[in-house]
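Severity: low
Component: inverse-folding endpoint
Summary: output formatting inconsistent between runs
Steps to reproduce: submit the following structure tokens with default settings.
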């Protein structure tokens, strides 16, 4: 009798929760139709790009209902709210899709009037040495309050937190090390001359013959080369061939970063980032930036891939570890939301084409659709960087960029180059210094 009574109580509680969540969902959807809003917030004086269907209804995680074909946002004042993180650190690793993430961050910073940690000139906060907050001592804005750490450097969490003057969310992104090295090799034409080879295939052959060759293990400009991910993350080359020492350092990094994204699963990564930062879908809609030109590629065969993987063993160890952790994060988020009656019952019943593979996959598909809509409305053509000018031109002509539909207001920021953004942020820092003096 006691078990039956408990069972009835549980069924009654569950029924009540379903009723409550159903009512909230209906109210939310009703308000969404009554309160139309664009997919992207107004940036500066430009009007935003309006997509045909909103990526996600905009109340914060974890109460996001992924409903397609709604070109409107929910009034957040009616929903339980969570703080949107506006202060954070992103470790920008070389050739890991970081430019796309950086553009997302820069747009977020511009929209929210935030300060980026910047050197006096250029786009590196450190190269050969670990980042040190004292490197900013000679800048005109050394005493300014900073919100975001996101430029290239060699990671040093303790020093980063000194600059931000707080313990803030931290995240980074990694990529298959073979793809990282091949991308670096083709990105810089001087790589071939530096390593004394005619192409990537000869480079791999030299690795196979003598992987410990001093010539192969030197770093171009003293900071680009073998095991680039390990180098960027601040690990010493002395341990790259020591699997046990690498394991300890990787576990330390796992504790230092709240999220490690994967370049080969970019949209899924951005869904996890939205969850970590309590951002909205409109904050992570993007164009893929700094992609290598097709003619700057030379596919490797399986044997060459194995040789390169062995030579990049430290980075491979990092990538495998955080690939497993990424799968765990996705599973955790799916489990968290599959247990919610709001997601499992209400949303499921409202979507004819609901994806059974889980919450993260559903949001990932919505993000892909929003990205495709952005591309359709904003991009006229993809061209080589040498054909671009003004705010769209990057510093390397081995990559592709976008000819943007400038008649569609708001598109420019999605394709704006890093140098153009940095000019904006430096001017802001200088202006703030002048006002304070």
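Observed output (run 2 of 3):
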């Amino acid at each position: 009798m006691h078990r039956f009574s408990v069972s009835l109580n549980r069924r009654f509680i569950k029924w009540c929760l379903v009723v409550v969540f159903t009512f909230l969902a209906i109210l939310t959807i009703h308000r969404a139709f009554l309160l139309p809003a664009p997919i992207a917030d107004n940036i500066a004086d430009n009007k935003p790009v309006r997509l045909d269907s909103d990526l996600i209804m905009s109340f914060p995680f974890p109460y996001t209902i992924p409903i397609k074909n709604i070109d409107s946002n929910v009034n957040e004042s009616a929903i339980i709210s969570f703080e949107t993180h506006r202060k954070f650190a992103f470790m920008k690793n070389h050739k890991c899709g970081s430019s796309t993430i950086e553009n997302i961050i820069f747009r977020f910073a511009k929209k929210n009037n935030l300060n980026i940690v910047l050197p006096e000139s250029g786009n590196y906060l450190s190269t050969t040495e670990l980042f040190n907050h004292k490197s900013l001592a000679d800048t005109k804005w050394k005493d300014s309050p900073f919100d975001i750490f996101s430029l290239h450097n060699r990671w040093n969490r303790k020093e980063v937190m000194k600059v931000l003057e707080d313990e803030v969310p931290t995240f980074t992104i990694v990529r298959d090390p073979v793809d990282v090295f091949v991308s670096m090799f083709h990105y810089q034409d001087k790589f071939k001359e530096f390593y004394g080879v005619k192409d990537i295939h000869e480079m791999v052959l030299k690795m196979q013959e003598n992987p410990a060759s001093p010539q192969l293990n030197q770093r171009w400009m003293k900071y680009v080369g073998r095991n680039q991910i390990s180098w960027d993350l601040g690990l010493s080359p002395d341990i790259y061939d020591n699997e046990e020492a690498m394991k300890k350092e990787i576990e330390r990094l796992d504790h230092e970063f709240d999220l490690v994204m994967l370049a080969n699963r970019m949209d899924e990564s951005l869904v996890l980032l939205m969850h970590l930062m309590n951002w909205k879908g409109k904050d992570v809609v993007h164009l893929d930036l700094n992609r290598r030109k097709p003619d700057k590629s030379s596919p490797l065969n399986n044997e060459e891939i194995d040789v390169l993987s062995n030579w990049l063993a430290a980075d491979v160890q990092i990538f495998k570890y955080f690939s497993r952790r990424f799968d765990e994060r996705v599973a955790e988020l799916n489990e968290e939301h599959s247990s919610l009656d709001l997601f499992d019952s209400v949303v499921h019943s409202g979507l004819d084409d609901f994806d059974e593979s889980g919450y993260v996959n559903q949001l990932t598909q919505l993000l892909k659709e929003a990205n495709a809509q952005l591309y359709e409305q904003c991009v006229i053509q993809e061209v080589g960087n040498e054909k671009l000018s003004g705010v769209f031109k990057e510093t390397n002509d081995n990559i592709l960029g976008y000819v943007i539909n400038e008649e569609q207001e708001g598109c420019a920021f999605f394709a704006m180059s890093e140098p153009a953004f940095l000019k904006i942020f430096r001017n802001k820092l200088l202006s703030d210094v002048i006002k304070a003096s």
